[in-house]
Amino acid sequence: MCRLKEFRLFVAAFEEASFSAAARRENATQSGVSQHIQRMEESLKVRLFHRRGKRVVPTPAGEAYYRHCVELLRSHADALRDLQRFRGEEGELRVGVTPWIARHVMPAALDRFVNVYPNVSLIIIEDENHSLAERVKRGEFSFVVMPETDLAENATILLESPAYLAYCRSREAAMRDLKLPGQLSHLKLVVSSSWSRWRKVVDRYLADHNCEPRQAIEITSLSAAIKVLINSDWCSILPGLTVWADSDRDRLATKLLPNGPVFRIMSISANRPLSEAGKTFHTMLAEEVTALGRRGLAQHALPEPKRARASKVATPARSAAKRMAGDAAVIRPKRPA
């Protein structure tokens, strides 16, 4: 650090054009600054300043040396700032997520978090909804991010997304005149596992509208369910968010369910305060969930081709269609508490 002090004194003398002013700036004595500069000149075997009374004027060598000293001091300051992040919080942060969250939300948040907390050991555990809710209650995680569950305590809603009937895009013509929700009973429906919260929501919606699917199969994996949809005549009631985020979204068509259920992504915290690193990672995940919802909504809400209207009279069916189209934009990001 002694050499750095010499560099600072030289830069101060150069910029102040005075050893006395440089001494005041660097909290040193005038004689001390003069001696430091003299030793530098002897060591470098070149004159850095012309002394002219109380003023000093840099030589061409001094001007060249000044540029390098400034760059050196700047690089040292940058190095100290970079090292500062390694003096922050340490320890372990355990977070539980569902496979869908791990695939679509986690990667971007991980990159951001590691840059801010490089010393924190981040452990991400994938598990199913019901298991995650039980494990966070037992204190195995700092928090979990998952679809809504009845088992939630200390929960924060991160995002809400409306429900759609999803099916293979090749069946759009056949499904165009389908009346919802009444004609859901005409369809073959893929449903999620009986223990999932979303399955209970869908079952309740069907019961409320007296609809029993013509046939039903249970598939636990969302990605596997979507593969079935794009390769068959099966349909499914899915959150818009999960459809829009899927890599096969271009092969799917959707119809918004009138007065349909709402899908929620939530975080559930353990019964203990989050560390600063935990709060930061929670915020980052919430931001990525919100961004995913907004991107999906932007992709889904593309304008449809204009069609010639047979009449300018607003029929009840046309008014209902307008209301339904307006309901398609009910993604409501929530700020974490």
Write up what this structure looks like:
The structure is a single chain. This protein is about 45% helix and about 20% strand. The strands form 2 sheets. Strands 3, 4, 5, 6, 7, 8, 9, 10 and 11 form a 9-stranded mixed β-sheet that branches. Strand 7, helix 9 and strand 8 (about 215-220) form a beta-alpha-beta unit. It has about 325 residues and is α/β, with parallel strands linked by helices. Helix 1 (about 1-15) packs across helix 2 (about 20-25). The protein has helices spanning about 1-15, 20-25, 30-45, 60-85, 100-105, 105-115, 130-135, 170-175, 195-210, 220-230, 240-245, 275-300, 315-325, and strands at about 50, 55-60, 90-95, 120-125, 145, 155-170, 190, 215-220, 235-240, 250-255, 260-270. The chain is elongated and about 100 Å long. The two termini are about 45 Å apart.
Q: Could you give a short description of this structure?
A:
With 337 residues, the chain is of the alpha/beta class. 46% of the residues lie in helices and 20% in strands.
Q: What structural class should be given to the helix and strand makeup?
A: alpha/beta
What separation lies between the terminal Cα atoms?
46 Å
Total helical elements: 13
- Proportion of strand residues: 15-25%
The amount of helix comes to 40-55%
Low-confidence segments, ≥5 residues, pLDDT <50? 301-337
List keywords for this structure.
two-stranded antiparallel ribbon; elongated; 11 strands; 337 residues
Please describe the topology of this protein:
Elements: H1 2-16, H2 19-25, H3 30-44, E1 49-52, E2 55-58, H4 60-84, E3 91-97, H5 99-104, H6 106-116, E4 120-126, H7 129-137, E5 143-147, E6 155-168, H8 172-175, E7 188-191, H9 197-208, E8 215-218, H10 222-230, E9 235-239, H11 240-245, E10 252-256, E11 262-269, H12 276-300, H13 316-327
Parallel strand pairs: 3-4, 3-5, 7-8, 7-9
Antiparallel strand pairs: 1-2, 5-11, 6-9, 6-10, 6-11
Helix pairs in contact: 1-2, 1-3, 1-4, 2-3, 6-12
